[in-house]
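User: New here, please read:
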Amino acid sequence: MSVIKQVTRDEWRFWHRTKLAATIIIIGTLLTLVSAVVNTLEMQHASHEREHLQQSAQAQFLEQPDRHPHRMVHYGHYVFRTPSALSIIEPGVDAFTGTSIFLEGHKQNTAMFSDQRQASGMTRFSSLTPSFLLQVLVPLFIILIGYASVTREKEAGTLNIMITQGINVWHLLLGKYFALVSSGLLMLLPLIIAAIWASIKGESALITSSFVAGYILYILVWSGIVLAVSAINKKNSASFAILVSLWIVLCILLPRIGSSSAAAIAPSPSKLEADFAVKEELRKLGDGHDAADPAFEQLKKNLLTKYNVDKVEDLPINFRGTVAQYSEKKLTEILNQFAEKRMQEELEQAHIARQFGWVTPTTAIRSFSMLVAGTSLETHHRFLREAEKLRFDFVQSLNKVHQDNLSYEADANRNKNADATKAARVDAANWQVLSEFSFKPDTAQTRLFRSAIYAVQLFFWFGLIVLLLRFAVRRIS
């Protein structure tokens, strides 16, 4: 162990003397620190803003005056997704999927106000999140620091001298490996601080510790790659060229190929095609605003038989409200079928892209990071489902008010004059049917279970690095 410690100390002394490695470490650490601070401030502002907007939307809905209940169905309501505690490090898909949905009758609107959709091309490149820095740039910094760790000893002839003096090659490599890992951990320090902050803000300690452990494993993998390549090659130039090429392939090309391959293997219809398909199905349901539509003839017959009357005017309930309820139920069933199909297609593509974690550690840590942080596609889909449940519940509750609290006669004559319009209103107390909306990330157990396979991918890469280092030792010996 004394030899390993001495080699580690010597490596740090060399980096200090050359200034280049020390400068890179300082730049890398400062970049991740500044990124973490900026992202934390942005996420805190977004969280407070969305919570305020959610309360404001709720209050505005409840404060509406007496109206016709179907007017409130179209008045609608907004729901907002507050960011998870770890989104200060890993925003995940949140920047692309939107943070707010407008809920109204007869429609399932898409999420709005995503940062990337509203940003210009140049602005997108300026968004350096802590996760991007740690997943893509920190490996490059480790390469710049350690590409000559062993090759410089070979070029200077000191490696053979150390071996002839009886220094164990494994001890030599482990000393240099620990030095590289420690430099990576310095750049990881802001993430650790941010994770502690997330725990203070209510995130599970199990989640934050697992999150940090995943990134430490990623640093171990890249430090091993850099050291192994440096040990196998004889010249600094060759080591540097191979490592930069590996970085381009593993951090940039393969993740991009993964997403493109997923879209090609599991193609999904365009939004325009999907919208036309939905409209085609909805046409068969009839117009829920027109109680005389032939599509509701059987419903009318069933109600007349049930209540033993001859005309809809004699029903003890408002037939128009019943039609609105029936139509909304059938419409929502169809919309949900298409929505679930779309979400399954998106998940299938995501799962295909994530399998590239077996060929690049960058994809493995990206998948693990988003799933543990609660900013993955699965979390976004749960937000859509919970928002849709709220939409359907409050719309159907208003339709029930339309059916039970408003007479058919007043409803049918509401456009005759001002007095008729006023008579077709219900008391504002009926707007209390709207439930509060508060979206939270999945439980710690759920997130860890989903991310387990991607943790296995990271361990797989660590095992490959161990084998690669063993091969490098044989080459040196």
